[in-house]
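Box 3.1. Reading complex inputs
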Amino acid sequence: MLRFIAKRFIETIPVLLIVATMTFFMMKRAPGGPFDTEKQTTPEIKAQLEAQYGLNKPVGQQYLDYLGNLARGDLGPSFKYAGWSVAELLWAAFPVSLELGCYALAFALAVGLIAGIIASLRQNSAADHIPMFFATLGICLPTFVTGPLLILVFGIMLGWYNTSGWDFASDRVLPAITLGLYYTAYVARLTRVGMLDILSQDFIRTARAKGATEWRIVWRHSLRGGLLSVVSFIGPAISGLVTGSLVVESIFQIPGLGRFFVMAGFNRDYTMVMGTVLFYAVLIIVMNLLVDIVQVWMNPKLRFEE
Amino acid sequence: MNRRFQISVWFAVVCAVVATAGCGPRETRVALGNRAQILHKGNGAEPQDLDPQIVTGVSEHHIIMALLEGLVTEDPVDLHPIPGVAERWDISPDGKVYTFHLRADAKWSNGDPVTANDFLESFKRMLMPSLATEYAYMHYVVKNAEAFNTGKLTDFEQVGYKVIDDRTLQITLENPTVYFLSLLNHDSWFPVHLPTIRKYGQPYERNNKWTRPGHYVGNGPFVLERWRVNDVIVVRKNPNYWDKDRVRLSKIYFYPIEAGDTEERAFRSGQLHATDTMISGKIPVYQKNHPELLVNDAYLGTYFYRFNVTKPPFTDKRVRQALTMAIDREAIVEKIARGGQLPAYNFTPPATAGYTARAKITPDLALAKKLLAEAGYPDGKNFPKTELLLNTAESHKAIAEAIQQMWKKNLGIEVELANQEWKVYIDSQRTLDYQVCRASWIADYVDPNSFLDMWLTGGGNNETGWSNKEYDQLIGDAGRETDAAKRLELFQKAEALLLDELPVLPIYFYTHVAARRPEVKGWYPTILDNQPTQRRR
C-alpha cells in the first residue's frame, strides 16, 4: 500500500511539470497582457512596468525563472492585485472554498443518498419518480438560476437568510445548497442505479428469504456495493467543490477561490493563472489517489497491481 | 417502517432549516449601521491595492479618498478646489509657480506631522522609473517630471518640486496649466508615508506590504481597519485627522461586489446603504416603485465608437459622417441604456469646467444618404463587409444591435457584430485590428483637455489612426494659452474640427445610476464619482 502511494506521488512530478509548461506557453500565446488597459499609458511607463515583472525578458528565460521560483515554493506576486502575492491570495481564499465545498458535499451526500436509496427500494412508484424528477431538474438547472431563486424565496421574501455575504453561520446555508444541488442530483441517480443493481442480485433475495429487515438489507448488504459508482464520482467532484465556483461566489459574494480561477485568465494575471492551475492540478491528483484507496477498501474484487 | 423513515427525514430537514435560519442577524446591517454611524457601501471591483501611486481604478479611489488627503480637495457640491493639507496657496503671475502653505495641524495617522518634505518624497516615488506607476503622466505638467520619469534626467533636484520649509512647498510647472489644482485631487498626487513604506519593503519597487491593515499610515479622515480580499474593507475614523470634528461617520464598510444583481439584492434586503451601480434592467422597476431610492448623477464620460480611419471604407470622411448621422441616440438612451444618459452629439460632455461645445452632429438622414452615395455607396450598395467590434457584455451588445438595425434601415448597410474578450479587444483596438469598435472614455480630471488631447497624432489613446496637423496645433496652443476664455475658444475650434472629421462616433454621455437609502446624508454627486467621505453622515 505504501509503495503504491509513494509511486503515485513520484508520478505527479512530471504531470505537474507538463501542466505548468503547457499553461505557461498557452497563456503567453493569448493576445493582450496584464498591463493592457482601456486607458493607454505611455510606452515608456509600460516598458518600465514590464521590466518590474520581468516581462521584458525572452519567453524562454521567463519560463525558466518561473520554474526556478516554483522549485523554491514561490508562486510570485499577483500582477493584478499589486500588494499581494499569489500564495497569500490562494491561502486566504482556500479555507472559505473548502468550508463551503464540505457543506455542499455533506448536503449532496445526505440528501442524494437518501433520495437514491428510497427510489431504489420503491422502484417505479411515486417515491421513485418524484425524487428522480427533482434529480433531473437539479442536474439541468444551472447555479445561476437556482442561486437567485433560493435568495428570492428564503432571503428576500421570507427574510430567513442574508442575501449575500460570508459573516454568519447562516450565510453558509443557501450557497451550500446552490452549489450542492447538482451533486445531490447526481448522487441520487448514481445511488439509485447502483442500489438497483445490487438489490436485484441473488444474495439479496437470499437475505430477504431469510427474513432480514429492510434496514439490514440496505445498510448491511447493499450499500457498500451500491455506492461504488458514487465514490468514483465524488473524488473529482470534491476537487471541483472545494476549489469554488465563480458563479456561486459572485451570486452570494463569497471570498473564495473560484473567482481567481476565472478572473486570473481574464486579467492576464500570469502568476495567478499559473498558481491556480497548479493548485487545482495538485488537488485533483490527491483526490484521485484518495478515491483509488477508498475504492480498494470498498471493493475486495480490486487488487493493487504491483 | 418505510413511511416512518420518510417522516423522520423530512423532520430532520425542517429542523436543519429552522436551526440555521435562527443563527442569522435579527436586525439588518443598515439598521445597525444607522445607530452606530456606520456606512455600508457597495464598491465595485476588488481593489488592486491601496497604494495611491499604483492603483488605476475608480473603486480603489473611493477607498483611498477616505485614507489619504492631498494638498487641496474639492468642494463636494461644485468641485472647486478647497484647502486640504494646504490651508492656502499662491500662484505666480505667469501661472507657472504654485506655492502651497501646509496647515500646522495636519498629521499622519501615527501622529507624525505632515510636512512639505513628505509631499516631495511622495512625488519622487511617484516618478521613480523603477516603481512603474501607470499614472505618472499626471505629473508631467510639472517641470522636468516627464524627463525624470522616462529616465532622461536622473537628478531629482531639477524636477519642479521644492521644499521651502516644513510647511511650504513650491511646485513649478512646464507651462501655465489652468486645471492644475483639479489634478491634485487625483490619487497620484496624494502623499504617502515613506518611513512606513521603507519599513515594509523597497520604497521604489512593487509588492511592498505597507498597505495592509496595521501597516497603513495615512493622513485622511479614516484609517484602514480590516481588509479581507473579495469580502470587505473596513475603515474607521482617524482621531489624528485635522478636521475630525466634521467627520460624522464612525466607520465605512466597502464591499467589493462586482455582480450588479448581487449588489441590488443586498441593498434590497437591508445589507447596504448604497450601491455602486444599478443594473439597467432594475432601473425601470425602481423608477416605478421606489424613485426616492434611485440616484442618477452626471458622470464625466462619453460612450462612443471608434472608426479605424486607416481601413477603407472608413478612410472616407463622408462614410464616417453618414454613419454618425444615421443613428437615433434618443432611442438608444431611452429604450436600451435607460439610466438617464444624455444623447451625445459631440464628444466632450456639456459644462466640463465651463466648456460646452458649440459644434454638434446633426442627425440628418437625407444628408447622410447623400454623403454615402457621394462616397460611392448609394443606398448602401457595394458597401464592403464591415465588422463592429465589442468587448463581450450584454449591455454593449444591445446597443450595437440597435445601431446595426438603424444603419441597415436608414442607410442599407449591413454590419456584423464581433465579440471579443476584454484583453483581446483592448489589443485589437491598440493595434488597429478592427473597422468600427465600441469604446468609452472617463475623464481623469475636470477639463475639456482630458477629452480632446487624446486625439492628438500618435496619442496612446487615439487608436483610430486619425491624424490632423491643424488639430494638433490647436490643442498645443490651448496647452500654452494662459487666458481662460481664449483657451476654451481653441478647444471649440478643435472640437468643431473633430466633429467634422469624425474619427469617432459619440453615442451618449454617461450618468452614474445607483441606489442609496435616504438615511445617508451629505453625499453629493461629483462628476468624477470621487465620493469624498469627510462630510458624509
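In summary: The two ends of chain A are 10 Å apart (CA to CA).
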